[in-house]
Write a structure and sequence with these properties.
Blueprint (H helix, E strand, L loop, with lengths): L3 H7 L6 H20 L3 E2 L4 H13 L4 E8 L14 E2 L5 E9 L2 E10 L4 E11 L1
Antiparallel strand pairs: 1-3, 2-4, 4-5, 5-6
Length: 128
């Protein structure tokens, strides 16, 4: 059953539950990319950064699951005190599950070599 707040919010969405679930998925993936790209990164904080991204996404509406993986093979050691890496789009691999009113959207983000681009995409849409 929808809460009063969800009932009030739903009035602003002139689309199906399926379309809204895809919309919510895109919003969350865009948030991950634009909020965290540029974060200072090293092998010592990569795992905690993955968890911080996941936990930040988990509290958002309709999120059922999220998995964030940062590619470790591109991490390098510091050359000197002033040297550090920052998170880039090609380092991110994300799998996200959204559910609204029985519509389940699984989406992802990963770097696609042939596109030279960190693509956000819909893997599947199902109805429970």
């Amino acid at each position: 059953m929808a809460s009063k707040r969800e009932t009030a919010a739903a009035k602003y969405f002139n689309c199906s539950e399926r379309e809204r679930a895809v919309f919510e998925s895109g919003i969350k993936l865009g948030t991950i990319y634009h909020q965290f790209v540029g974060t200072p990164l090293s092998s010592s904080n990569v795992e905690s950064l993955e968890k911080a991204i996941e936990e930040g996404v988990r509290v958002q509406p309709f999120v059922k699951d999220v998995e964030v993986h940062i590619k470790r093979k591109v991490l390098r050691g510091k050359k000197d005190e002033y040297d550090y890496q920052t998170l880039t789009g090609p380092m991110l691999e994300v799998r996200l599950t959204i559910e609204i009113e029985g519509v389940v959207v699984v989406s992802g983000m990963r770097y696609i070599d042939e596109l030279h681009y960190p693509l956000m995409y819909v893997s599947s849409i199902t109805q429970k």
